[in-house]
């Protein structure tokens, strides 16, 4: 579809959140279709996890987004989907790869939302494809368990913060979940959640560096808990790390089923977003260093540095491999 | 994309206007891409006309709309696009053809919106395809001239109308044209206009019969004049004809460039929409007969009857042909 | 959240209606949460009234709106909420107070929408806070009764009106109430209604003065009757008074439960909006004087003048008090 002014920031760059939402919709369609391809109990595929996703080149207002999706692996209860996004300038014909994302879905019964159904197996062209898929499946399963433990943190407000401290840029928004945010089962689309997370992370980044910012990448996101229609969700973000030219922001999503539910507010999702700041010519700008004050902030900064260096090393290894 | 509650009425049927908007967006993308496929002045394809479009089967919330578009003819300054819409129930896998629409676009220069550029010719597989396309092109050109003359009419308000008269159900809405309604040239997308027209026509139909209604077909729509960002548009509808089970509504779109512009309000588009009323089981219901009062209303009723009988005869001829 | 192009007019000023909608959403969330804070029948807080609200400074595209809400008084069956809106330019860090609004909510049972539940009392830091709250509660109750009686008026259409008369700028729109407009109870959010009212009032103001306009204030709005999903609402506005630099517009909301309901069209809300016209530099411009023709128009003009002078006197008294 054609990118509109509301999909973009004032510099004309399409929000990462808009793209994540399109990716998730494509993934939900293909995996729901697959899970219902054999006779049996009807199901709706729910997003369980998105692997780390890089934004390879910015998309602009007026360009057309081409989204394609393919199922690359199935386990007994989950589907791995590969989604590619290309931006196309229909005036010049220029096309660019914007994103390559990997998503995991789980089929939930349409009649009983707490029942996970079985996934029809796909055929692999080569045995190695199945083996590699299985490896990816085991890896993401481990990672999901780990993040579940990390999830207890809360963002507290800070009075009169100094510029460039964590408290200075931290932000949160609340959103009342409406019908168009939800699937047939009455739960929030993963893509809607990711769009809100990107919105908050973008505000944190812009408050910190005061210049035009764009989403550079999103770390793996695990969807631990479903969010129901009628909930109020609070999305909070705080900066955890800055390199010379990038900012890492941690985002939490809390759901508050405040009507007709005995349940307490709970943590539904958390993730790390990385932003860069771009000049008018599209060149990356230096960003102010994050000032850490408390012990926790210093620890999170070091952890962010670890993720940053790991990603950098991985990218360099890939480039060397590609060059050989 | 997946149909959401906001795309549909309370009975769960997707609004004809939502479908028309998707059709037009697909047409605008493919024709703009084609018009810029050769070196030269960049252009944006503007919708000039939509041929009569039937809604063959209703689409529902939760279904996926598959839209495909193909260029079927090019004249020197215009492009004919054929767009097909299929509804897919991703739970059952059932697919149905919802619409087959034909649209005409004209490339306008990105630098000078009043300049119509030349269209790169397409290659035809067979000579007859070109000849048939040329015939369609000549026919629509004639029809465009005709409707331009009919366009002077105005809908006057009626005080305390009787049930089932024209004045009883006539309706109008105003809409302030925002950035997301517009193309790169700053003019309203034809699809946005058609969605508003369907909204008004649907309200007229529901006011008349007080039951659940769906769009059955749209007569050829000619876009005589562009509408600029910042205009207020008034969309008015009045019932012109009823058969036993269908209602015909005439819709006018007037644009009012009311801020910082010396120009007067002008008629931009007009068209006929046909609606049917459906029971909960999806069966067509009888509709109350339209009560005509003035000479003009009686004349318009007879004209509507003419269009109705002509369409009916054409459809029977097609069915006989198909049966042979 | 960040203000987008669709939230604003073509001069980049955010519509008053967008801000009113955010205010109401914040109020609905905090009061629903409060009313469900004790064990008992679950309820949804419905907007009953908004006190007079001034727009202290304009908000622009790209700025972040910070909305905070606090419960300031509870009676047996109603909750008073104070909502503050700040605009923040995240590039410069500049913050401005945009609005201070007071809203009244009533908890309706989730199981039986016609049953008003009891509100858990709040604790007051000082006895005077409770006394002042009670005084505000009694005052608004009186005012609600009064406006209920005023509510019978209808806006009649005028053929070929002269510029700057009442008939020249009067406008109305219709809107089909969709799922996203509604609360969990299936009734229209007060904020959605106020956004439509601001849209119509803004079009009336712009038609009158033909220049860029912004909402300056909204008089107290009473929500007499709920509006159900599937209704068509007609929002009509007419100018009642002009001072040198401001325009007062009266807005009516009528609901038409036209499908499968025996009920007649009814008046749901009415209110007065005040607009000013701004130059490109943000300075207030002189507006053309309203030409009154009928006796009713002259009377309404005088009443509007009364409200204008009263507000002016009140503001001057406040400024003197503040200066002491």
Automatic annotation (TrEMBL), chains A, B, C:
Top-level EC class: hydrolase
GO cellular component term of the entry, any: cytosol
Composition bias, Basic and acidic residues: 296-306
Keyword Ubl conjugation: no
One biological process term in Gene Ontology: acyl-CoA metabolic process
Localization terms from the record: Cytoplasm
Keywords, sorted A to Z: Cytoplasm, Hydrolase, Lipid metabolism, Repeat, Serine esterase
InterPro entries noted in UniProt: Cytosol_ACT, HOTDOG_ACOT, HotDog_dom_sf, Thioestr_dom
Alphabetized GO MF terms: carboxylic ester hydrolase activity; long-chain fatty acyl-CoA hydrolase activity
Region called Disordered, residue ranges: 296-324
Residues at the active site: 9, 198
Keyword Transcription in annotation: no
EC code: 3.1.2.2
Organism superkingdom: Eukaryota
PANTHER family for the chain: ACYL COENZYME A THIOESTER HYDROLASE, CYTOSOLIC ACYL COENZYME A THIOESTER HYDROLASE
Protein name: palmitoyl-CoA hydrolase
Native source species: Gymnorhina tibicen
Lineage, uppermost ranks: Eukaryota, Metazoa, Chordata, Craniata, Vertebrata
